[in-house]
Design a protein that fits this description.
Elements lengths: L1 E10 L5 H19 L2 E6 L6 E10 L2 H18 L4 E9 L1
Protein name: DUF503 family protein
InterPro entries: DUF503, TT1725-like_sf
Organism: Pelotalea chapellei
């Protein structure tokens, strides 16, 4: 069994924490439904302009787990053009 984690650092087009919450919740909910991953906001909760999201997947195959998270990163890049990915890191746990 292999556990992989994607940490995404995002620059958001929001000016209030309420706007930020709407963007983050939308990304999280759609990612859960589309990629079957667990996700959470793992840092920078107090800043409305940036977010750090963590996504985790478990698979019996390394390649499948890593591919899922790479596809998720590309999906965020393509489906949210106003959200800038400032950093992304995929690690095996």
């Amino acid at each position: 069994m292999f556990i992989y984690c994607l940490e995404l650092h995002l620059a958001l087009p929001s000016f209030t924490l309420k706007e930020k919450r709407g963007i983050v919740k939308s990304i999280q909910g759609r990612a859960r439904n589309r990629f079957n991953v667990a996700c959470a906001e793992v840092g920078r909760q107090d800043n409305c302009r940036v977010a750090v999201l963590g996504f985790v997947t478990v698979s019996p195959d390394k390649t499948i787990a890593r591919t899922i998270l790479e596809r998720l990163e590309n999906w965020v890049y393509e489906d949210w053009p106003d959200v800038e990915i400032t950093a992304a890191d995929i690690n095996e746990i």
